[in-house]
Amino acid sequence: xxxxxxxxxPPTFFGxxxxxxxWMEGQIGAVDRxxxxxxxxxxxxxxxxxxxxxxxxVAPREGLxxxxxxxxxxxxxxxVALVSNFWHPERQGExxxxxxxxxxxxxxxxxxxxxxxxxxxxxFWTAPDEEPVLVAAAGIRTDPSAHPYICATLNRRIxxxxxxxxxxxxxxxxxxxxxxxxxxxxxxxxxxxxxETIRELIPAALRFELPDEDARQFAxxxxxLPGAVVxxxxxxxxxxxxxxxxxxxxxxxxxxxxxxxxxxxCLTLRLDSGLV
Length: 276
Fold this sequence. Notes:
The protein has helices at residues 33-50, 89-92, 95-104, 146-154, 192-201, 212-216, 236-244, 255-258, and strands spanning 5-8, 54-57, 74-77, 80-83, 108-111, 122-125, 133-138, 158-162, 175-177, 183-185, 207-209, 223-225, 228-231, 248-251, 269-270. The protein is an alpha/beta fold. The chain has one domain (5-270): L-arginine/glycine Amidinotransferase, Chain A, CATH 3.75.10.10. Strand 10, helix 5 and strand 11 (207-209) form a beta-alpha-beta unit. The longest helix has 18 residues, at 33-50.
């Protein structure tokens, strides 16, 4: 089994400097920078030392506080990096720095003509013994026109869904593919048609619906590894389901990043195709 590889960005310049999602409202200037650094370091050490993942770092840039959320940098598949074209002007300055990192590290790098926000809105789900499916969200941060473009570029099957709740503005805030085709999610974040699409795609035995409290604490923003799940929060029911499915559950506090609308998954980008 190959070693999972992730891209992370130190939180040197992280803070809430503007409001582009509901989590940021009332949080400008409220981030405890030392606590954020400590929480990020704990996540980094957990992945690198305890779970033996390979971690690469992209340099943080002053004036780009959300660059710490590397999940939004690109869609990654088999050495191809489709670099994000961000919706909000506040984040558009990140694109050239991420593109430069991918180019310098051997990725076939492409800048998208369509608005999309990388693995924030596009996540691979893999059924046992089947080809990966790219579940792709639109409606808040990603334009639907990006889906056929990415489908054609990567030659992957795409299943399109629509997000309808601003608090869950990216797919990875409410949908987490895990090893063995399992998945945790928060159905109210999706429109009814998309909920039905996901239920048809993923068998009931492989999916778990997050309780409201867990969803509000971004339990759905989880990092899935072989045999393990890393998350900033897990309520008793969520933990029991995950452990019952054979996962080691690693909870590491990330509440400083929740002030900006992010948690464990937002802080990592899977580099080896994004597949569990």
